[in-house]
Amino acid sequence: MKKINTLTLIGILLLAYSNLYSFDGERKGFILGGGIGAGYLSNSTSFESYSSSDNRGVFLTNFKIGYAPSNTLEIYYVSKVSWWGESNITFVLGLSAVAATFYLDNATETGWSISGGLGLTAMYAPFEEGSGSSNGFGLFAGGGYEFSSHWNVELDLLYSATTEGEVDIHSFGVQLTINVLAY
Asked: What CATH number was assigned to the domain covering residues 2-182?
């Protein structure tokens, strides 16, 4: 909860101190966006000589905030979260990363893009009191298409490696999200 409050405060401060003309229909300037989607997640768990894996469909949320120095490049903080339920418990795998998106065409409001990011990842049960967290490293890469001004669809590949005690968890995900971006 503390992390969400901090991110909200940072977003409000950036918005308050950003150039008021940044929401002028051009990508250049302050950006703020989010999206939802669905995907596939494969988790492999290993502990000493024991290993297991599971595959599942997941619900996705996507949040980004940052700055675009030009109409073709965005640099931002992103939070990509995969949500799923198991035995009446909700689990999440979240990636908090520094990322960049490069748009292949700056002459139109629509077009193709490629993106990627590198950061920290955590797997935990957010609604369970006293639940532990597996923390580690994660990255994503993907592409997207802005089909209308401010609206795009993204397909990303996600990899994360987390550790909790002596348990190693490697996750691979395919994520498809529909996003809205204010610029």
From this structure: 2.40.160.20
